Amino acid sequence: MHDESHGPLKAELLAVALEAAERAGALLRDGRPADLGVAATKTSSIDVVTEMDIAAEKLITGFLSERRPQDGLLGEEGASTTGTTGVRWIIDPLDGTVNYLYGLPSWAVSIAAELDGEAIVGVVAAPMRGETYRAVLGEGAFAGDRPLRCRPAPAMDAALIGTGFGYLASRRASQAEVLRALLPQVRDIRRAGSAAIDLCDVAGGRLDGYYERGLNPWDYAAGVLIAREAGALTGGRPGIEASTELTVAAPPGLFEPLQARLEELGAWKG
């Protein structure tokens, strides 16, 4: 863990991330056509979402290049630079694109800042929820000024678990098999459509736990930090950090049996 000498840097990165996420969130909220979900053809509506996604990433990367020109970048829509400061920004300009397309409120802008490969700042802005979640390594997690804490661990059969599914039919089929086996063993499953928000919902106690296969770093970088700073454990397969293979988040006491069950079910496969 980084020492306290990074305090001013963390504060600066948090301020930059909050402003970038707020600006991008406002662009997406205010720029979405009211009739987007009922556009004439599937292709035209998807194109509009893609255009908004790209516009939001350009806004964020432009803002970051003004404020922190020497930093590295990794963005969903193709931004990738190494930088010279040890700081790298990991950006998902629009997490929950299908929700955005349909006018559902669970979409978000996710921005994380890593220092030497370790996430030290995470911001997830969910404009249609009216909430922005944030965390700084070692300093806790918040929604606005309200501290976030994950729920105490329930027994597995009383746990409300969030998850998500991939776009490929073959992957969805294997994910459905995992879900079929897991569903009778938990209270219920939620599929909200935004990994970033799901991780923040673990942090805030709106979900007991969460797992998903096939996420990219920009999907989970900010959310994993926020969940951890709220007291959750995060990881992938046993002994491995959260990754594209598998991402799991839950409070201590639920994390271990959930992770073990997902391992038994081969949740990382397919």
Summarize, please.
This protein has 270 residues and is of the alpha+beta class. The chain has helices at residues 7-31, 42-67, 97-102, 169-182, 195-203, 217-229, 255-264; strands at 72-75, 80-81, 87-95, 108-115, 118-126, 131-136, 141-143, 146-147, 160-162, 188-190, 209-212, 233-235, 247-250. This is Inositol-1-monophosphatase.
The SSE string, one letter per element, is HHEEEHEEEEEEHEHEHEEH
List the strand order in the largest sheet. Answer: 2-1-3-4-5-6-7-8
For the sheet with most strands, the description reads: 8 strands, mixed
- So what's the overall shape? globular
| Overall number of strands | 13
- Radius of gyration computed on alpha carbons: 18 Å
Q: Structural class from helices and strands? A: alpha+beta
**Residue share in helix:** 25-40%
Q: What CATH architecture of the largest domain do you see?
A: 2-Layer Sandwich
- So how many helices? 7
Name of the level-1 CATH class of the largest domain: Alpha Beta
Give the termini separation.
34 Å
CATH superfamily of the largest domain: Fructose-1,6-Bisphosphatase, subunit A, domain 1
Proportion of β residues? Answer: 15-25%
What is the CATH topology descriptor of the largest domain?
Answer: Fructose-1,6-Bisphosphatase, Chain A, domain 1
Mean pLDDT across every amino acid position: 94
What is the domain tally? 2
Uncertain segments are none
Structural key phrases:
hydrolase activity; Fructose-1,6-Bisphosphatase, Chain A, domain 1; 270 residues; 7 helices; IMPase; 2 domains; alpha+beta; five-stranded mixed sheet; D-Maltodextrin-Binding Protein, domain 2
